[in-house]
TrEMBL record:
Keywords: Transferase. This is NTP transferase domain-containing protein. It comes from Paractinoplanes hotanensis. InterPro entries: MobA-like_NTP_Trfase, Nucleotide-diphossugar_trans. Residues 6-154 form the MobA-like NTP transferase domain. It holds the Pfam family NTP_transf_3.
Length: 199
């Protein structure tokens, strides 16, 4: 596999968690953001879209969507702006995936590089695509954003589903034992479940 970039979306209002700064919440002693960045330790560059805590233990590039709070697609565009043109693949990830692993990213990368598609995402047991746990051809992701701008006139408020309507996606099943790598923490109960799994 060649090199790849990682764009981690660390914004969002976390309304179901009382407005907490969700990426900084800890699972097994590490912030969720730190755990996601560890899963893409070999990505270059690693880009965080959102607030970067001053005590983050790794070096990252950081940016914000414009305007702040304008949603995940605007955040994706802001992150992609920092990915060099010669980087062929980009992992697009939510910052609240504390069970993500390097192995899970490798599976997505191998699929994205071998399938005649524009990207690869995990599909859960209910058949839902986990769009913020995927690896994409960087140029295709940029083109999809351009198409969406042409359609809507702006990215403010656009959903990830709208963006992915412009992409051909390979769906990947996780067949290994243990927790699913796309498990995200939207509630305090989710956080407790992730803590139990991570022990």
């Amino acid at each position: 596999m060649g090199g790849y970039a990682a764009v981690v979306l660390a914004g969002g209002a976390a309304r179901r968690m009382g407005g907490a700064d969700k990426p900084t919440l800890t699972v097994a002693g590490q912030s969720m953001l730190t755990r996601v960045l560890a899963a893409v330790h070999d990505a270059d560059p690693r880009i965080v879209v959102g607030r970067v805590p001053p005590d983050l233990p790794v070096q990252v590039h950081s940016t914000r969507e414009d305007p702040p709070g304008s949603g995940p697609v605007a955040a994706t565009a802001a992150g992609l702006a920092l990915v060099p043109d010669d980087v062929s693949y980009t992992a697009l990830l939510a910052a609240d995936l504390p069970l993500l692993t390097g192995e899970a990213i490798d599976v997505l990368r191998l699929t994205a590089e071998s399938a005649p598609m524009q990207g690869a995402v995990y599909r859960d047991a209910e058949g839902r695509r986990q769009m913020l746990c995927g690896v994409w051809r960087t140029a295709a992701l940029r083109q999809a954003i351009d198409h969406l701008i042409e359609e809507r006139g702006r990215l403010d408020g656009a959903s990830v589903r709208e963006l992915m309507n412009h992409m051909r996606v390979a769906e990947v099943s996780w067949r290994r034992p243990g927790p699913p790598p796309w498990f995200d923490c939207d509630t305090d109960d989710d956080l407790r479940t992730a803590e139990e799994w991570a022990r």
